[in-house]
Amino acid sequence: MRFPPRISRIGAAAAVLSALLVGGTVTATPAAAAVGSICYSDLPSQAHDTLELIEQGGPFPYDQDGTVFQNREGILPSQTSGYYHEYTVITPGSSTRGARRIVTGEEHQEDYYTADHYRSFDLVDYGC
After folding, report:
1. 4-23 residue pLDDT tens
2. Cα 46–50–56 angle (5° rounding)?
3. Which domains does the chain have, with CATH numbers?
4. Signal peptide position in this chain (predicted)?
């Protein structure tokens, strides 16, 4: 049986629980609440390929892959600059990078998928 890459990574729920246990605060913003979830098995096969490349450290098909994602849209949970990085999910038939991306969070090692160029995000759930 083949296990998806990063299957042991903790998700956002574990990060929230950790913050609560050590006395931190967690504030939900309307934007952060808009983040959905998606099962790893429901991702397009090209997203699986991108996640495998991330796990291997590359090589990546585009120079922009691995660059800092600024979260200017404010949809993902607020973090310090440099926390998030973006990677292209190849769109078959597209002559450009297309709209699909994986955005990773370094500290808690969460992975987000967007199919609409950062208008919405789904946290990848490796447990379903």
Report:
1. 444 434 344 444 444 444 44
2. 145
3. 12-125 (3.10.450.30)
4. 1-28
